[in-house]
Design brief:
Blueprint lengths: L1 H18 L7 E13 L3 E12 L2 E18 L2 E23 L2 E21 L2 E21 L4 E5 L3 E7 L2 E12 L4 E12 L4
Length: about 200
């Protein structure tokens, strides 16, 4: 997951440099989300995405991991065993509509899905069955962000510098993937970036 985060950060910085000469900011934002997932792949899900909006068109890169774990205890220390893990790498296209300080969006696309499932364990040796394939990812989002340029606040409290268009966002995401290991999740997302033209 660390590699995916570094890749998203690199792409974000590359995009920022190319748009630095423009007068109006681009609509470009990252997000991280988490929540429960249900379906053939079920458990706790966590993910991240990078979004770019052109007019009402929304383009997104997304990574989602759904993990089902079993926890044993050795004295007071938890020992976590992964029973099943599904990783999704997706490219999505959709529409995003802005309403003052919030937005509503919906997207679908194509994805690569990798699933590993524990099939046996003996003497602390775990054997997993791995499957790979394509899937149909989808998501629906509602997010809240700054309606106008504001000074950035450290720890949400201390304002610094001049008013800027870069801001945080928070919202809800309904997401999923239709594939051999389908899932649907409902999570809270938190993001950074430029959520509208200021």
């Amino acid at each position: 997951m660390k590699n995916q985060f570094l890749l998203l950060t690199f792409v974000l910085l590359l995009c920022l440099k190319s748009w630095s000469q423009e007068k109006s900011n681009p609509i470009l934002f990252s997000e991280a989300y988490l929540g429960p997932a249900f379906g053939r792949a079920s458990g706790f899900s966590i993910g991240m995405g990078l979004n770019y909006q052109l007019k009402a068109h929304l383009f997104a890169l997304r990574y989602t991991s759904v993990t089902q774990n079993d926890t044993d205890w050795v004295f007071i220390f938890p020992v976590i065993k992964t029973l099943e893990q599904t990783d999704e790498f997706a490219l999505l296209y959709g529409r995003r509509h802005l309403y003052g300080n919030h937005s509503f969006s919906y997207s679908s696309g194509i994805s690569y899905v990798k699933n590993k499932e524990l099939i046996s364990e003996a003497n602390d040796v775990f054997t997993y069955d791995t499957q790979q394939g394509a899937g149909l990812p989808f998501e629906v989002n509602i997010k809240w962000f700054n309606a106008k340029k504001e000074r950035y606040r450290v720890l949400f409290l201390v304002p610094i510098g001049q008013p800027i268009s870069f801001s945080r966002s928070i919202g809800f995401k309904l997401y999923g993937n239709i594939s051999k290991n389908s899932f649907v999740g409902l999570g809270v997302n938190y993001g950074f970036g430029w959520h509208k033209n200021y």
